[in-house]
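Lecture 7 notes. Example A: sequence first, then its structure tokens.
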Amino acid sequence: MIKTAIGNNIDCQTLKIKCSEIINESKLIESPYNLDCLIEDKYLVISIDDFGEDNLTKIIDLIRQVINEYQIIDDFLIRSFYDVNKIFFCSNNQTKDNIINDKFETVNNLKYSSFNFSVGFFIFLFGLLSLGTIGTIYYFTRPCVLGNCELITETETSISRLLKNQSQGLDEIKIKNIQLGLIEGINKLKRVPRWSKYYQESNILISEYKNKIDDLDKLLNALVLVNNAQTLTKNLPLSLDEWNRVKSFLNDAIKIINSIKVEELNQFKTEKLISYQNELTTVNNNILQEKKANDLLNQAKDLAVVIDNEAKEVKSLVDLENIGKKWQTSIQKVELISPQTTAYLEKEEILNNYLQKLIKVQNQINQEKNALNIKNKAQEKIKLATESQKNNQWTKAVSLWKEAITLFKKIPSEVLLRKEINKLESNANKQLEIATSELKQAIIREEIKTKLKEICNKEEVMCSFNVSKENIKVFLTDKYLQKIASASAITNLTNNKEEKNQIITHIDQVEKNYQYLSSKYKLPVEIYNPQRQLIMIYNNPF
């Protein structure tokens, strides 16, 4: 595996694909080409075709760009695909020299076997001397071997300046720039050889810079988490699960930032922690608001189910009024649902539905109240009609009964009072029939009385009378009877036939009048003397 500065390992296949992609995108090479990646003796080796001097430089730059992007810290070289000794670029000159030397193969031993021993020995001594000279030069010319180690000082200064300049208005690009700077510093410090007295100091700095790289990587992760949270909150409203995800992103980001130990980022950490804590407070408020909205919606829905069940068992105006109050309570709960909540998406539809049901109930209540008001008015008419009947005021009674029945007719058929109203209306109709009948009889009695007045008071008071539903009673006056008796006695003495015929005609006419009354009104006419003794009955029922 290939090591990177940020702790992520990648394989050669991944690097090979990425290099091919960026070369293809550059359109520098149109024909197929060879490119390979492998690790030899802990060195990363990239083999490419000989593309020509102009294109080769550009392609090498592209490959280096990929290596920098992946932040690879292994030493690497770029060589010819066909000639392993032909190296185009190497990240470390020392490595390049060693590899080139390692690739020299003594394939001509047999060819030179005829040389004499002295020539071979001379060559051996010359090679040994050359190797010693080159080794000595290499040993003392490595960084930080002789004198002060300016490399460490320069690296520290460069990193310090980088952190100071880039930490202002820190963002993803600046963080990656700092990481690249730290990687470059690490690569410089790796040049300090083990035999240098500054080797341990350089290793401490390398470890410190790697920790900073790790912290910056954490910071990038934190920024990604915050970005995820902010992306989610762009599409409001969010469900409770989504708000909890946002909360989790922010909590994780805050935890990561608190773990970062890069002193140069303290001010940035403080600013971000305050910002993210404020965002977290807003998220917590939104979670509470979402829970409250969901609770209100669920309470309203549950109450609506209860109301619908109770509506099936309504028996009185009180039941209807209780249902109306419960619909108002349910509507109030829906109206309290805040915007920017998932429950708010259902608010308008549910509110319209519940309002329609409330209006329906209120209409029923008004109808029932109106029916009750009409019923009470009708009952007042019934009370007055009953009193009129007791006083034999049949005309008034009939009028009142008719008014009561008319009021009952105004009450809709679907009201809850319908059974009671039907009973009252039925009774009123019966009473109207009775009152109407009594009124007719009363009119007849008045008619009889009128005729009797004509009979009894024609010339003088002949009689008095009493008319009831059962009969007609006529009471002859004493004066009238005495007059008839006196006239009869005189006619008998004078034998005046004309006067006698007049008396007989009078009596006959009176009897005919009584018989006419009995016949017309189907009532017996009872004739009484002044002593209230029955002396005659005229009864003609047919």
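Example B, a different protein, same format:
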Amino acid sequence: MKTTLRPRPGWRRCGLYLPLALASALALGQAQTIRVVPTYHNLGVHLTLATAPSPATTIALALKEEGATGDFCEGHPLSRIASHRFAGSAFGLKPDTLYSLRLSSPALFPDQVVKMRTRSELWPEATNGTYHVALDGDDRSDGRSAATALRTLRRALELVRAGEKVVLHGGRYYEGDLEVYVGSSGEAEAMPSQPIVIESAPGGQAIFDGSDPDFSPQWELHDAGAGVYRTPCARRPYHAYLNGGHLYHFGVLDHLRTNRWGQSSGYYADGAHLYVRLPDGGPLGTNRISIPRFTFALMLMVNHYQIRGLEFCYYGYGRDPAALDLDNASSNVIERCAFHHTGRGVVLRHDSIHNTIQHCTFNEWPVDAFRWDAVKQGEPFGSEPYETGGVVVDGDHTVYHGNVIRSNRFERLFDGVHLFSDDATAPTEDLDFHDNLILDCGDDGIETDGVGSNCRIYGNVISNFLTGISVAPAALGPTYIFRNTLLDWRSVPSVEGEEDGRFHGYPIKLNHQMREEPWTQWVYLYHNTCATSAPDMDGFVFNYYWWYWTNIVSRNNIYAGTRLALLNVNEQCPIDFDYDNLFTTDPARFAAWNGTNYATLAAFRQGTGQERHGWAVDPGFVDAERPRLRPDSPLIDRGVRIAGINDGFLGGGPDVGAFETASGPVALRVTRVGGRVQTAWRVPPNSTWQLEVTPGLAPATWISALGPVQATGAPLEFEHTNAAAAGFYRLRSADR
């Protein structure tokens, strides 16, 4: 039964209590409007002019920390996203810090300066009281102590008020379809300084389970030849599970029987029976089949909630399942939660702004192993049950801005996340998706398919996928994709694939399939490291699509493949590639562009005008698992400076790729040889070093052991054996 916490009379559903510092709009006479949206480490700037300036107009951005000495620092310039609109970002800022932003342009004379404070990472505590919930509790109790705990979260949500906490003691709670409206939680909604906190009790793990514990199947063999069993079941669940993992949903019974989509197992439900085929048509045996009772766990239509340390699993009875559905919900924090087998972990809908999702895990195994065609084309559901993502922005005619998704782990999904709105009138704006780990996706690691502006995707690691970041399309812009590491894209079998019957993967996908879609524009690819060891994979691919993209800018990236370093089969979409490293392990091929093959970088430059300052060298990674540059890499200090992006580079210039490599010495290994200690070192070229040791574990006394060690013109590796069994070691520069 669906439980709904209804609003009390006199309350309105609305997004109240947003701090004024979270967004700022400054109207400058009748000429222009400047809007600034902060996150913790970035500021998004939106400029609207009253009339369209000349086509050559540019807007320079500079910034300065309030109270700091010195002049404004140059930032990344704004991008023109419409005839009279510009947008851009300031990156890498301190949290809870006031900055001055200066916009300069002949169209703005004189310069315009606005101030904005980044968001604080310190959230207020709930100190007004605590409600306890436990499996042995009683909803008739007051819930104010562990001894008088409530039995359900539903009851706690009816009682909790602003500034209070709900603590859930360890165990599995079979609850779901809880809708929390403004006013439904006690006397008032949570306030900025008085949040409502829902968390696991210390030392216990509260698990919210959407499955049906009363499902007790009575199996009978339905089709012996096909290995199909069935049980009476009046329900038609959207998801079902085999031994805790997803069971593929066939939309037609005959497709289950004939295995139309090449799945090792699956299910079908018609409202009278639930039919299953177990792996490869084998017997039922001890295999466990379960179905969900609830579609979602919590739908929050409230602000300033903090949800911490909970586990959500097995939601998905009806369509559009999720664990947490944030609907017109703002300034909420989802932290240290685990989401698995919920279809979608967290959904953002209807003006959900300034939410934070961090330190969470998302897993939908074995969806990543489902056949690509089965997910993309299976009737009648197609991709609906599985092509969703751990976090999904479900764009529908409303605005999303200032949401931050960081330091999460997404694993074994079909698509990792879907970040952009589908509505051209209400783009995803000023979203930060950074420092996340995305592993083993059946299709796309990150989807920016749709409409977004001032969205920043950086510092993520994506490994083992068909497409790392899908820009298909990423309309409006700018979209910043920088300092990501994309590893080991691969191919998948497909009836729609290339001549060899496969879809070949690539790190970044740019699609634009229909003229009526908004155009992809202003995609900045900066300092990404893209490398695969899978056979027959290209380093970067522009496939053929039917309409335009424009202003695709690539700088200081590493694109390393095993077939072609770069492939472009699109004749009509302009791009701007330079200062990138194009590399392939295939000595017989280099690049192909609009039907022309180029064997060398020099020929490629001459034929296309691209990569006039680029390279075609082995990047010199530490190893396949650590795609950082070795100190002797030819790409160290070889990148171009990009204001606002790589200002803090080390050495003589920015390094190419995702990581900035220190130019000092590296300790390679330490080994014991008998009673002695042997150390091995690598020092950079054109440097001199003195090796010093201590006679024991007393670092106060340093003794010269070897030196000076001089590397002339090239890096040098050397070993040293110390007679002492233990000690401290250091290399001291002899050049200073």
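Note on Example B: Residues 601-608 form the longest helix (8 residues). The longest strand covers residues 703-711.
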